[in-house]
Design goal:
Blueprint: E1 10-11, E2 14-15, H1 21-36, E3 44-49, H2 50-59, E4 93-94, E5 122-126, H3 127-137, E6 139-140, E7 144-150, E8 156-159, E9 164-170, E10 176-181, H4 187-198, E11 205-209, E12 217-219, E13 245-251, E14 313-314, H5 343-352, H6 356-362, H7 381-393, E15 401-402, H8 404-413, H9 425-439, H10 459-473, H11 477-482, E16 484-491, E17 498-505, E18 508-510, E19 517-526, E20 534-541, H12 546-556, E21 563-571, E22 574-579, E23 594-601, E24 609-616, E25 632-640, H13 648-659, E26 673-676, E27 682-686, H14 700-710, E28 718-721, E29 730-731, E30 743-750, H15 752-757, E31 784-785, H16 786-794, E32 797-798, E33 805-807, E34 812-814, E35 817-824, E36 828-833, E37 836-838, E38 843-845, E39 850-851, E40 857-858, E41 874-884, E42 891-898, E43 903-908, E44 911-915, E45 925-932
Parallel strand pairs: 4-6, 9-13, 14-15, 18-36, 19-23, 24-30, 31-39
Antiparallel strand pairs: 1-2, 3-5, 3-7, 7-8, 9-10, 11-12, 11-13, 16-17, 16-35, 19-20, 21-22, 21-23, 24-25, 26-27, 28-29, 28-30, 32-35, 33-34, 36-45, 37-38, 40-41, 41-42, 41-45, 42-43, 43-44
């Protein structure tokens, strides 16, 4: 792609820049804030390549560690960034890496790559910001996108990154054209575009939903949006980067429509009578979701043709009533048609419709259970749609079902699942279980119940009270079958106040313990010069906090009780930032960064901190100390001056003490006493007071005495006061005064003499936080079992700083410790394995194999309630939702067991095939479904427990 020249004016060989980096930042900040306060539908945003935008952020001094994912710049007070990373002004705006058809197109004609992710590949900036950036930098191409509103009751504003892409087939010659327009465009607008494109009169044109190259639904020209239509993605395009919706154009000729109008999708002749709308009109989302995955749909009144002879069944014919039905012969073996990246939905549905208590319930007459009055429900529509879908799947035969009506209801009440982007099967499952519960809640009027604290009462009494209160407000099939109860214990770290609550759960989200760790290498420096710097490699939680890193380093380096560690990031031989917030996430520290830790005294209030950077000089002349020569090298050193430190001589002594471990041995530290000439240069002519003590590994106290002796003479090193960037310098003299309690930044000039006396190699080659093959000693990974995941879930841990607990005793929010325990288990127990890890900067998929029992999963030792001995805590696996591939794509399928046949099947969208029990344990297992085994049915009364993980 050709990018326009930036067009900056040149004057006297240099660029005449319109604004400084600081001014650019301030202008854009103001425009961003103004835009955020004026959100409305129709606002214009521009898509900008993150590659270019990050270079601009670095230029204005923001770096790229605080990326504005939500179209906000980071809060300056939380951005501890020193703009010392000198970065040149970026070139013209270059969006060539995020567009598909970059040649000869501009703006609305450009197709943005479908695999992109906001925050990682691109950013959205308001029109006013784009105009400023374009004015300053030129380039492009411009990628304008409009803001649309989503949601029925609670409207949300979001930018429509990907417009609908419709593939138009002309029935006259089978020619094909591509039309792109907003999902908010009306069907009438679609007719207008098609008729203009084909140069025909609108009265003579008719459009069909041409899903699977079959006439599905005729599109009536109206003001209804395409999002509200029943358009579906063609199955042939599901796995391609660009997804299309198929529409068919028919043109009336001589007063007649083309032959075949009166045929259904299989070619069977139908009576030419006016088509009536279905009894239960539904909505199907049209078009890909937005970059953040949200969309919405509303009820559609579009007419559709009969599909009685179709290969695929369809639920839009309406519900057959809720009378009891029996399972069909070999029922439960029907697949679900993929409507376009709906494999996540198909996987979750197959697991639910093969849950025996749910199957039994929805095959009966559940009319009286529908709760249309519940404000938290969906008027019973979700339960009706799910029940009808389950009945079709359990009817006789193996004909795949197209869950179009169910997807329409889902998209209407949960717009995050509309469109054709891939989603998370567990998130859908959570919504479905909660939505079904509310639609089937037997409690029509929920009573108000005031919660009580435990106040030292027996756990059994408190737990039963909480469960009764919960059931008084929530009573449904889902509560009966899928909900359990856990005990939560919070302990205040200040007053030791204990708060115990008992809460319901629908599923358990388990972390994968041995895959949530991270290897980090940090170099530790002594702040008192008592030892050489040493790199330490420690293992910490990947999503832990900086305090975890400090604790691991403290143990590794045998930190003394009167010391603590100060972490810092080093960049270009200067301290880029101090990492002094113990609650900062470790995900903020990248593998390629260089982190150091300084061992410093705990009691340092009122002391003066000394930061030292190193500058290499070949020789020292009288004028060089005042010059601007800069050649930084090595790692900065940090120490604290004593309470009585007041002059430059004290700084000189501190520098000598820090460098003492680096001295080459043997050498006489004071063999040449310095005298100052009139011009201020240093000579080493007087050897009279030589000291022959060698300080290779000599006595530290003896060396300290020598350091104090040095203060009688002139400074031993060429030192200058400087700033945090090392851009300024002011020579330090023996009598230069310092202000106690301040931070003093000093530049140490290394001449040939310093290189001769000290080994600077210890200050160089600072290792990265993690580099493959650096210190890593390959170890065999620990086996992960379902029990180890459960134990990690139940482990006591401190609350995060964003989840502080309000202590009723202290009357303040505290970072309490939290411990979970299982109290009562449901009949159907669902385990969610947290394979997807998310942070502000990274998203990752964990493909670790988890060894889970298929038979006799015994959880007795984890259940704290012992008052129900007749209740079995042994479970049998009956379904698995699998995820294959990585983030942002991949594929979902399901394994489910037909209990009547005692046989496992693989449900891969519309394809269903038998599978051996030995084949269902894979690293793709994502959500596990277990059913309680009746106590009498447990072989020998025992099950597989955490003490014995025999393979099933």
């Amino acid at each position: 792609m050709t990018i326009a020249d930036s067009g900056f004016m040149m004057e006297n060989g240099g660029s005449c820049l319109p604004y400084t980096p600081e001014q650019e930042k301030q202008i854009v900040d103001d425009l961003m804030n103004k835009s955020e306060s004026n959100l409305r539908e129709g606002n214009l945003y521009y898509v900008v390549s993150n590659r270019w935008f990050t270079s601009w952020q670095r230029y204005i001094g923001q770096g790229n560690r605080e990326y504005p994912f939500n179209r906000h710049f980071p809060d300056p007070q939380h951005l501890d960034v020193v703009p010392s990373k000198t970065v040149g002004r970026p070139g013209p705006i270059d969006n060539s890496d995020i567009v598909l058809n970059g040649n000869g197109f501009e703006g609305d004609d450009l197709e943005i790559l479908r695999t992109l992710e906001e925050g990682r590949d691109y950013v959205l900036v308001p029109r006013e910001v784009w105009e400023k950036l374009f004015d300053w930098y030129k380039g492009g191409p411009a990628l304008p996108r409009k803001m649309i509103s989503q949601g029925i009751t609670h409207k949300k504003f979001m930018v429509e990154i990907y417009r609908l892409c419709l593939k138009l087939t002309d029935s006259r010659d089978n020619s094909q054209s591509i039309i792109r327009l907003s999902k908010k465009a009306s069907v009438h607008e679609l007719y207008g575009m098609v008729c203009t494109l084909k140069a025909i009169e609108q009265e003579k044109a008719r459009l069909w939903d041409y899903f699977n190259k079959q006439k599905q639904t005729i599109l009536i020209a109206s003001n209804r949006t395409l999002e509200e239509s029943t358009l579906q993605m063609d199955q042939d395009w599901v796995h391609l980067c660009v997804l299309h919706l198929q529409i068919l154009l028919e043109v009336q000729q001589d007063g007649y429509w083309p032959s075949g109008f009166g045929m259904d999708s299989t070619g069977n002749e139908l009576a030419l009578v006016p088509m009536e709308p279905p009894r239960s009109s539904v909505s199907i989302a049209g078009g890909p979701t937005l970059s953040n995955g949200y969309s919405t749909v509303q009820t559609s009144n579009l007419y559709r043709g009969s599909a009685l002879g179709s290969t695929f069944t369809d639920m839009e014919d309406g519900y057959d009533g809720l009378r009891s039905v029996a399972k069909g012969d070999r029922g439960g073996l029907a697949g679900l048609q993929n409507l376009g990246n709906t494999c996540f939905m198909n996987s979750a549905i197959q697991c639910l419709v093969h849950t025996p208590p749910i199957v039994e319930y929805f095959l009966q007459d559940y009319t009286e259970e529908i709760n249309k009055q519940n404000p938290l429900g969906m008027n019973g529509e979700l339960a009706l749609a799910f029940g009808e879908l389950l009945r079709k799947l359990w009817s006789s035969g193996r004909t795949p079902v197209a869950p179009r009506a169910f997807k329409g209801k889902l998209a209407r009440f949960a717009p995050q699942f509309s469109g054709y982007n891939q989603h998370d099967s567990q998130e859908l499952l959570a919504f479905l279980l909660d939505g079904l519960h509310e639609d089937l809640n037997r409690v029509k009027q929920k009573p108000y119940i005031e919660t009580k604290d435990s106040n030292g009462r027996p756990d059994v009494e408190v737990a039963d009270e909480c469960w009764r209160n919960h059931k008084a407000r929530n009573d449904s099939l889902i509560v009966d079958v899928c909900q359990g109860q856990y005990k939560s214990t919070l302990v205040c770290p200040v007053c030791s106040k204990i708060s115990i609550t008992f809460d319901p759960f629908m599923y358990l989200s388990l972390p994968l313990p041995s895959t949530v760790t991270r290897i980090m290498t940090v170099t530790v420096f002594y702040g008192d010069g008592s030892g050489l710097p040493m790199p330490y490699t420690v293992t910490v939680l990947k999503h832990g906090y900086c305090k975890d890193l400090s604790q691991a380093l403290a143990a590794a380096c045998c930190l003394k009780s009167d010391e603590n560690l100060l972490l810092a990031e080093v960049y270009e031989h200067r301290i880029f930032r101090y990492i002094d917030n113990p609650s900062e996430l470790l995900t903020n520290i990248k593998d390629e960064e260089r982190i150091v830790a300084y061992r410093l005294p705990k009691k340092r209030a009122g002391l003066t901190r000394l930061d030292i950077i190193h500058n290499c000089r070949q020789q020292c002349t009288p004028d060089s100390r005042k010059g601007d020569e800069k050649n930084f090298f090595g790692t900065p050193l940090v120490t604290y001056l004593g309470e009585d430190a007041q002059t430059g001589a004290d700084i000189d002594i501190a520098v000598a003490r820090l460098l003492s471990p680096l001295r080459r041995k043997p050498y006489p530290l004071l063999s040449k006493v310095h005298s100052v000439k009139e011009n201020g240069s240093v000579s080493e002519d007087n050897p009279t007071n030589s000291c022959n003590t060698q300080y290779g590994s000599g006595n530290q106290s003896e060396y300290s005495t020598e350091l104090e002796e040095m203060s009688r003479w002139e400074l031993s090193f060429h030192l200058s006061f400087t700033d945090e960037r090392g851009s300024s310098r002011e020579p330090i003299e023996k009598n230069s005064l310092i202000r106690p309690g301040q931070i003093i930044r000093v530049m140490l000039d290394w001449t040939d003499r310093e290189h001769e006396l000290f080994d600077a190699s210890y200050l160089k080659d600072l290792p990265e936080v993690h580099k493959n093959g650096f210190t890593a000693k390959k170890t065999r990974p620990e086996a992960i079992t379902l029990f180890s995941c459960l134990e990690a879930f139940l482990k006591e841990e401190p609350l995060g700083p964003q989840d502080m607990w309000y202590c009723p005793n202290c009357k303040e929010h505290r970072q309490a410790t939290k411990k979970l325990d299982l109290w009562r288990l449901p009949d159907v127990l669902v385990f969610h394995l947290k394979r997807f890890s998310y942070s502000r900067y990274l998203k990752n998929k964990l493909d670790t194999l988890v060894n889970f029992p298929i038979h006799n999963l015994d959880l007795s030792q984890y259940v704290k309630c012992k008052d129900a001995p007749s209740q079995s805590n042994v479970y049998e696996l009956y379904a698995i939702s699998n995820h294959y591939g990585g983030l942002g794509g991949g594929h979902y399928s399901a394994y489910a067991k037909l209990i009547d046949e005692n046989r496992w099947y693989h449900f891969d969208d519309s394809h269903v095939s038998p599978v051996g029990e030995s084949e269902i344990k894979t690293s793709a297992a994502y959500v596990l479904f277990y059913q309680r085994v009746k106590a009498a049915a447990t072989p020998n009364g025992t099950g597989e427990s955490s003490l014995g993980h025999a393979s099933s």
